[in-house]
Amino acid sequence: GLSGNPAAAFMSFDLLVRPLLKKLSGAKDLEERYLEVELAEGFTKASPQRRFLRTRVIWEKGKWIAYQTGNNNTGILKTMLGYNALVDIPKGSGPLAPNTSVKALVLEEMLCYHP
Prior knowledge:
- The chain is α/β, with parallel strands linked by helices.
- The chain has one helix spanning about 5-25, and strands at about 35-40, 50-60, 65-70, 85-90, 100-105, 110-115.
- It has a five-stranded mixed beta barrel with strand order 1-3-2-4-5.
């Protein structure tokens, strides 16, 4: 029962199926990993529902920065390239300015570090 939109199906897999597969395979560390990150570009759309933005999170200038991988429309596959985290935009959020502090669900074990 995943969404028909390609990017939405990938994100649903990361949020629902991947944790289930880890649990079924006997993985011990099942906790979701959230980081406090700074949203580099901001997000101009109001969010009446909870949203997840595909981002590339890197360590830069002493903090975690989340860069959107492109237009976060659920039908655009190009934004799936290189994303390693989903920024969690709470239900009822208004537009977010650049450099806003948000939470990001980390999807990779290794994040990018840049001096």
